Amino acid sequence: APGRRFRLTVRPLSPSLTFVRLTDQTAVRAAEQMRVDFVANASHELRTPLATITGYAETLAEDGELPPELRRRFGQAIHDEARRMLRIVSDLMSLSRIEADRFVAPQEEVDPAELARLAADHVRPLEEQRGCTVHMTLAEPLPAITGDFAQLLQLLDNLLSNALRYGCPGPGCEVALTLRAEGDQLLIEVADQGEGMAARHLPRLTERFYRVDESRSRDAGGTGLGLAIVKHIVERHRGTLEIASAPGRGSRFSVRLPLAAVTKA
Ligand code: ADP
Fold first, then answer.
1. In terms of Cα–Cα distance, which of 209, 235, 247 is closest to 102?
2. What is the complex's ipTM, to 2 decimals?
3. 25 pLDDT tier (thresholds 50, 70, 90)
4. How far apart are the first and last CA of the chain?
5. For tag attachment on the chain, is the N or C end more exposed, with fewer CB atoms within 10 Å?
6. Ligand 1: does its nearest atom lie under 6 Å from the Cβ of 194?
7. Which numbered atom of ligand 1 lies nearest the CA of 221?
8. How many CB atoms are closer than 10 A to CB 214?
9. Pairing between strand 174-182 and 133-138?
């Protein structure tokens, strides 16, 4: 197939015998490339706010005559950029913690209704800020799942925050959070009435630092890591993530997780 990479090893063993090995290096190369890209992207993401901080801090240190109003503005800018770096570093740490736990099956018995209510509480300040409401539907019965409560809370928090940030074009909008049992799975769905996204973005959304609209993500305080974290949490819980979206028609993120009865069987 085009684009595949192979390594050919040829070693003469004796005058009449030659060892030949052909190994497919495509996956190894792809993983290496991902690592290289990740380090480059992470460095770039941290360097940008750091450059701004350095610039403002230098001016503050060197210009003793700076009017108080400018001093205040520069101080605020330094504070904002430092907080931005803190968010990036915290998200990177979350991501590496989840990755490290990849092969450790989560053990806690999690009540989906409790999880949903807590997640809705978490995003209340954002809800108020955006003038939008999270409308929660918990379809009975909602059997327990086996999971990592803190990680699942983070998953819901990330999906709801995104819906409120990018999926609420104006006050009065609604974000629908639905939980229901579907066969031997728990379905968690977050749907918004926002602008939606073009199909070409969807397969790339869970890549680290991928954003549809860079400046909007930045203004909203995004790190570009939220959906990468969601994907890793879903994988650790042996679940699936499905993203449906179209321009002008909102977005829907559906997570399916095995019910506790299944994981214990
Ligand atoms: P960010 O920190 O930028 O929010 P995410 O990984 O959470 O990073 O999301 C990646 C990008 O996907 C966002 O920057 C945004 O462009 C887009 N996105 C995520 N959720 C939605 C949504 N509900 N509606 C529209 N766009 C979204």
1. 235
2. 0.99
3. confident
4. 41
5. N
6. yes
7. 2
8. 12
9. parallel
Token pair in block for residue 169: 């074009």
Place of tokens 């949490």: 233
Q: Are 113 and 138 in contact (CB under 8 A)?
A: yes
What is the pLDDT, as a whole number, of residue 265?
65
Helix (H, G, I), strand (E, B) or coil at 158: helix
Q: Which long-range contacts (CB under 8 A, 24 or more apart) does 237-245 make?
A: 237/106, 237/145, 237/147, 237/148, 237/151, 237/152, 238/263, 239/185, 241/206, 243/202, 243/205, 245/196, 245/197, 245/201, 245/202
- pLDDT, tens digit, 9 for 90 and up, residues 41-75: 999 999 999 999 999 999 999 998 999 999 999 99
Q: Give which of 119, 124, 197, 128 is closest to 159, Cα–Cα.
A: 119
Indicate the residue type of 94. S
Q: H helices within 14-103, ranges in order?
A: 26-62, 68-100
Read off the amino acid at residue 251.
S
Q: What is the mean pLDDT of residues 15-21?
A: 94
Q: How many residues are recorded in the chain?
A: 265
The predicted pLDDT at position 194 comes to: 94
Query: How far is the centre of ligand 1, averaged over its atoms, from the C-alpha of 228 (Å)?
Result: 10
The protein residue whose alpha carbon is closest to atom 26 in ligand 1 is: 166
